[in-house]
Write a structure and sequence with these properties.
InterPro entries: LDL_receptor-like_sf, LDrepeatLR_classA_rpt, Peptidase_S1_PA, Peptidase_S1_PA_chymotrypsin, Peptidase_S1A, SRCR, SRCR-like_dom_sf, Trypsin_dom
CATH architecture of the largest domain: Beta Barrel
Protein name: Transmembrane serine protease 4
Strand order of the largest sheet: 13-14-15-18-17-16
Order of helices and strands: HEEEEEEHEEEEEEEEEEEEEEEEHEEEEH
Structural class: alpha+beta
Keywords: Disulfide bond, Glycoprotein, Hydrolase, Membrane, Protease, Serine protease, Transmembrane, Transmembrane helix
CATH class of the largest domain: Mainly Beta
Largest sheet: 6 strands, antiparallel, barrel
Number of helices: 4
Distance between the termini: 106 Å
Number of strands: 26
GO molecular function: serine-type endopeptidase activity
GO cellular component, one term: secretory granule
Helix content: 10-25%
CATH topology of the largest domain: Thrombin, subunit H
CATH superfamily of the largest domain: Trypsin-like serine proteases
Length: about 425
C-alpha cells in the first residue's frame, strides 16, 4: 500500500521518525544553567573564603610550625607567642643612637667635613686628589646610595676649620695625618642627591589649599587605609615621619605610604618593609619623636614625587625665620574633620625662651625641639598633620622639623612644637646605613 501523496511505502523499515530540533532555550536550560550555577557557587565560595580570611586577619595571626592562631593583640607585644617568634618579627623596631658618623655637610656651600677621631675635631675636606670614589664613600656613610656630584669651592677668608686631604679605608673617610697645605686652595662641595626642588613655588599664606607640585615630598602615612600621619620623602627608599604615629599599631604589614597626591582619595598606597624609631627617653617622653619608614620598593621620582633635603649639620634658625608647614590635619581644634585636600601655611620660628614661658610650655620644649607658628595664633598644625615636614628654603627646601606636639591648635602663645631634625642627623645616617 502506498500513500497517494507520497513516494515512500508505508511499511518502509528505514524511515527515521521526525525529531523536533532543540530550541536555544532548551540548550541553555540543559547546558548554560548548570555552568552558571557552578560559576556562581565558585564565586560564592571565593567571596566567603576572602571574608573569612579578612575577618581572621583582623582578629587573629597565624603561627607556623605548629599551625595555630593567636590573637592580633599578641602581635608585636614584646612576647614571642609563636614557637619561632614570627609574631614579633615584622614590628616597629627601636633603633638605638649609633656611633658618631665621621662625615657631615656644612651650610657653607654644602662643603664636606670629616671627623678626626684622634683629636675629636672636624676638618674641612681639601679638593686635592678628591675622587668620585671618595664622594660615594662619604654619601654612603650618610646612608645615600645615589650617584653623588661634587665640585671645588674656594676656601673663604672666614673659614674656621682646619683643611686636610682625605683618604679612604674600609668604607670610611679619614683625615690624612701627614697632610700638607691644600694646594688647590679649594674645599669639596658635595651633593649626595638632587633634592628640595619643586615645580611650583607656594604663594598663599595661612591654611590655604596646597598643590603636590609645590610639595612633591609630602606623603600620607596610613594604617588599614586610614590616614594617620604626614611624612616626607628623603630618598627613593626612606620616608621621614614622627615616632608617636606608631604608638597604637606596631605591626608593620598594615602600614602603607601614599605618595604623589594632594588628596586623601583612593590612590594606591605603597607597602612598607621596615619602621624604625629611636629608643624612647623616659625622662623626656616628648623627645625623640622621629621615625624612618623603609619602603618595600624604591620610588620612581617625577614632577609630583621628589625628595626633600635634610638640613645641614650646622643649620641654625634664628627667631622669625620664615618656614612652611603642610598637612591634611583637622581644620579646627576639638572638632571639624580631617581635611581631604592638602593645606599649607606660612609660619615662623619662635624663640624657645618665649615658648617655655609660664603662659606657654613652662620648660617642656628642649633643645632637640623647635617652636614655630604665629604668636597671635590662628595658624598652626593640628591632629593628623603629625609627622609632616616643617620646611625652610635656602638654596633648596630642607626638612628642618617634624610636626610633633602642642597644646591645642592655633591658640595664642602655644605654637606648634617640632622635632629638630639637625639633632637627629646622626641617628638618620645610622639607620639608613
Amino acid at each position: 500500500l502506498q500513500d497517494p501523496d507520497s513516494n515512500q511505502p508505508l511499511n518502509s523499515l528505514d524511515v527515521t521518525p521526525l525529531r523536533k530540533p532543540r530550541t536555544s532555550l532548551e540548550t541553555f536550560k540543559k547546558v548554560g544553567v548548570p555552568i552558571i550555577a557552578a560559576v556562581l557557587s565558585l564565586v560564592a565560595i571565593v567571596v566567603v573564603a576572602v571574608l573569612i580570611k579578612v575577618i581572621l586577619d583582623k582578629h587573629y595571626f597565624l603561627c607556623g610550625q605548629p599551625l595555630h592562631f593567636i590573637s592580633r593583640r599578641q602581635v608585636c607585644d614584646g612576647q614571642e607567642d609563636c614557637a619561632s617568634g614570627e609574631d614579633e618579627q615584622e614590628c616597629v623596631k627601636n633603633y638605638p643612637d649609633g656611633p658618631l658618623v665621621g662625615v657631615r655637610l656644612s651650610k657653607d656651600r654644602s662643603t664636606l667635613q670629616v671627623l678626626d677621631p684622634t683629636t675629636g675635631a672636624w676638618t674641612s675636606a681639601c679638593f686635592d686628589n678628591f675622587t668620585e670614589t671618595l664622594a660615594k664613600t662619604a654619601c654612603g656613610q650618610m646612608g645615600y646610595d645615589s650617584k653623588p656630584t661634587f665640585r671645588a669651592v674656594e676656601i673663604g677668608p672666614d673659614q674656621d676649620l682646619d683643611v686636610s686631604e682625605i683618604t679612604e679605608n674600609s668604607q670610611e673617610l679619614h683625615v690624612q695625618n701627614s697632610s700638607g697645605p691644600c694646594l688647590s686652595g679649594s674645599l669639596v662641595s658635595l651633593h649626595c642627591l638632587a633634592c628640595g626642588d619643586s615645580l611650583k613655588a607656594p604663594r598663599v599664606v595661612g591654611g590655604e589649599k596646597a598643590s603636590v607640585d609645590s610639595w612633591p615630598w609630602q606623603v600620607s602615612v596610613q594604617y588599614d587605609r586610614q590616614h594617620i600621619c604626614g611624612g616626607s620623602i628623603l630618598d627613593p627608599h626612606w620616608i621621614l615621619t614622627a615616632a608617636h604615629c606608631f604608638r597604637k599599631h606596631l605591626d608593620v604589614s598594615n602600614w602603607k605610604v601614599r605618595v604623589g597626591s594632594d588628596k586623601l582619595g583612593n590612590i594606591p598606597s605603597l607597602p612598607v618593609a621596615k619602621i624604625f624609631i629611636p629608643e624612647p627617653n623616659t625622662m623626656y617622653p616628648k623627645e625623640k619623636d622621629i621615625a624612618l619608614v623603609k619602603l618595600q620598593f624604591p620610588l620612581t621620582f617625577s614632577g609630583t614625587v621628589r625628595p626633600i633635603c635634610l638640613p645641614f649639620s650646622d643649620e641654625e634658625l634664628t627667631p622669625a625665620t620664615p618656614l612652611w608647614v603642610v598637612g591634611w590635619g583637622f581644620t579646627e581644634q576639638n572638632g571639624g574633620k580631617m581635611s581631604d585636600v592638602l593645606l599649607q601655611a606660612s609660619i615662623q620660628v619662635i624663640d624657645s625662651t618665649r615658648c617655655n614661658a609660664e603662659d606657654a610650655y613652662q620648660g617642656e620644649v628642649t633643645e632637640k625641639m623647635l617652636c614655630a607658628g604665629i604668636l597671635e595664633g590662628g595658624v598652626d598644625t593640628c591632629q593628623g598633620d603629625s609627622g609632616g615636614p616643617l620646611m625652610y628654603q635656602s638654596d633648596q627646601w630642607q626638612v628642618v622639623g617634624i610636626v610633633s606636639w602642642g597644646h591645642g591648635c592655633g591658640g595664642p602663645s602655644t605654637p606648634g612644637v617640632y622635632t629638630k631634625v639637625t639633632a637627629y642627623l646622626n641617628w638618620i645616617y645610622n639607620v639608613r646605613k
